[in-house]
Structure of D-malate dehydrogenase (decarboxylating):
Amino acid sequence: MSGHRIAVIPGDGIGKEVVPAGLEALHATASRFGISLQLDEFGFASADYWQRHGTMMPADWEETLRGYDAVFFGAVGWPEVVPDHVSLWGSLLQIRRTFDQYVNLRPCRLMPGVRSPLADREPGDIDFVVVRENTEGEYSSVGGRVFEGTERETVLQETVMTRTGVDRVLRFAYEQAARRPARHLMSATKSNGISISMPYWDERVAEMGGRFPDVRVDKLHIDALAAQFVLHPDRFDVVVASNLFGDILSDLGPACAGTLGIAPSANINPERDHPSLFEPVHGSAPDIAGQGIANPVGQIWCASMMLEHLGHPEAAAHLLGAIEDVLALGPAEAPLTPDLHGKGTTVELARAIADRVRERS
Ligand code: NAI
Ligand code: MG
């Protein structure tokens, strides 16, 4: 049986602690479902690599990673050694763009045993995914400065929306919605204020909707939508947004669902022309790195998303169920990490989840 080839990049800080934890849960799930995996670990995209080589990644990184089915990524960034814009642009952002990972997918689910910062919210109340356009939109480098340093100093930066770029992310979002029980898509817009690009976005949303008659679609201006995330998170199922709006919503969503430590994300190239990359939402957390107390759940949930992407939905659901079972036990019964009000370590929590993967029916 030919296995899936996975490139593993731990990166910096707690990335080096949560990636092994994620792999333990991944191995437990793969062996239970008879999935064969070939894993290769790489030390680049880290401050250590930068100190030795003066770059974040080797010149041939693209050829190296191209042959893999997926990249399992920890976190990159160690500001004491490399400025953050250098480490990020020198690694993760290059990978996302080169591999045309045009969907950034972030599930937001309030897990049992996790306290939401929103009052009186329970598991089941928050369960939606944010689909963010990841390659164009507001994050273009089209523009410039003229008359610098004078009274006429002028700065311009353009939003770029291409029909190809908009349609492909909308199609992905509609497909996600069509597969979920609620079959609802919410589009983030601002066509009242941004009077050229956002009406275009709305037009494409309506046009694409014609191909998905079973999906109910709504739109909300981004300001009202952000307020609704906090006031009525239960209204949402799939949310689709441009690069900037999606960036903001995909931090706000997981924040409403509790700790940063459990939030996963996927950078996806849906056509599979290039590998997709799975990474927790959090960074390298220098303040707790080396203490063995980082929450591994975000990374383990990434393993579940990766299994789903590789065509193993039952295995993915089984692993997510194991995470839920262990979190639901609460800090008294399970070795939850300090951010979940427990006294457990990264290794203990990962072991508990891997054990649960083997035990649960
Ligand atoms: P961060 O996400 O690393 O940490 C923010 C806060 O959350 C810290 O107090 C940290 O201890 C806590 N935290 C994060 N993950 C946790 C976990 N798994 N368990 C328990 N607590 C956790 O964000 P910060 O501090 O702004 O950035 C630190 C470094 O990480 C920077 O170099 C930054 O550029 C980088 N970064 C990298 C990302 C990536 O690789 N995609 C994403 C975000 C930041
Ligand atoms: Mg962000």
